[in-house]
Design goal:
This protein is an alpha/beta fold and 325 residues long. The chain has 2 domains: 241 residues, Rossmann fold; 71 residues, no CATH class. It is 35% helix and 24% strand. The chain has 13 helices and 12 strands. β11 and β12 form a beta hairpin. α5 packs across α7 and α7 packs parallel to α8. The two termini are 31 Å apart.
Length: 325
């Protein structure tokens, strides 16, 4: 099955007064047709930077230093700004985690959605406005004709997020990137937004990259999950396999830290802290927190390798244990 987008050995750095920050270090993953892939990890793990890199939105003092991002057979890292402009919003769209600040406060929400139909579809103003109302209805905005004439400050946080999703879907993108789409929302509103994303992905055929720090969200929404720690990809697996048999010690620690409503568990905090990305360890970046650390973990960076069917892990100790079986 060919991927909608395939990322290979992506590395992103930021220049600071104190040195180079290696925000993403050799990330490789893909998003498949019609799937929701969860990208998870603690705050500062490189998830949002990875998402911005997919759209080539890394700006100085940041830069992509190596890697490929292949979409529609073309490496996005090698395209001109003009070529990228035909992809951003039209073929790859993004829902940001702060919808109220992403919306223009001086323009009605209906006009903001309509402008995308006019830009990407070449439609007239009248047709674009009708399409905008239809899209607002699709994402669950009540009384869409009336609400389309209102401004963002007249909408709740959850409704603003629905407007952002409407804008992202206006051009029927092949890939939708949702960066922490439930941040700042109450539990019931967040659940409705996740249900909406899942339903829209199924109904429109769009693939979705869902970025979150919440494994509970991943369990309820995604088919596969990619786990990042300190800018490195450490495990990629189908959701059920990852929760049932997490292989990487970091993933195991993440799973053990999730509160459970169905049974009593003792939540265990993840020991230590994320290493400084100004001076990260030369090998695996989990060495300072890992109970399985080996000498070569400090010197060499493990690459993603097959652990089971469609299950990749980057860990020397896991490789050794598998070889011993």
């Amino acid at each position: 099955m060919s991927a909608v987008i395939a990322v290979e050995d992506l590395a992103v750095r930021f220049s600071t007064d104190h040195g180079e920050v290696e925000a993403v270090d050799g990330a490789s993953f893909d998003v498949r047709p019609g799937e929701i892939l969860g990208l998870v990890g603690e705050s500062g793990s490189g998830k949002s930077v990875t998402a911005m890199a997919l759209l080539q939105l890394i700006r100085k003092p940041g830069r992509i230093v190596r890697g490929e991002i292949v979409f529609d057979g073309r490496d996005l890292c090698r395209l001109s700004e003009e070529e990228l402009a035909s992809i951003r919003g039209a073929k790859i769209a993004m829902v940001f985690q702060t919808p109220r600040t992403a919306l223009n406060p001086l323009i009605t929400v209906g006009e903001q959605v309509a402008r995308l139909y006019a830009l990407h579809g070449g439609l007239s103003s009248a047709v674009s406005r009708r399409r905008a109302v239809d899209m607002l209805r699709l994402v669950g905005i009540p009384e869409p004709e009336r609400r389309s004439r209102q401004y963002p400050h007249q909408f709740s946080g959850g409704m603003c997020q629905r407007v952002m999703i409407a804008m992202a879907l206006a051009s029927a993108p092949r890939l939708l990137i949702a960066d922490e789409p439930t941040t700042g929302l109450d539990v019931s509103t967040a659940a409705r937004i996740l249900d909406l994303l899942r339903d829209l992905g199924r109904d429109t055929g769009a693939s979705i990259l869902l970025i979150t720090h919440d494994l509970g969200v991943v369990a309820a929404t995604c088919q596969r999950v990619a786990v990042m720690h300190a800018g490195q990809m450490v495990e990629i697996a189908p959701v059920r396999a990852l929760f049932a048999r997490p292989a990487h010690p970091y993933t195991r620690a993440l799973v053990r830290s999730i509160p459970r409503a169905d049974r009593e568990v003792t939540m265990e905090p993840i020991p230590g802290a994320v290493p400084s990305l100004l001076e990260p360890p030369p090998g695996c970046r989990y060495v300072g927190r890992c109970p399985w650390v080996e000498d070569r973990c400090r010197r060499e960076k493990p690459s993603l390798s097959e652990h089971a069917a469609d299950h990749l892990v980057a860990c020397f100790a896991v490789e050794d244990r598998r070889a011993a079986v």
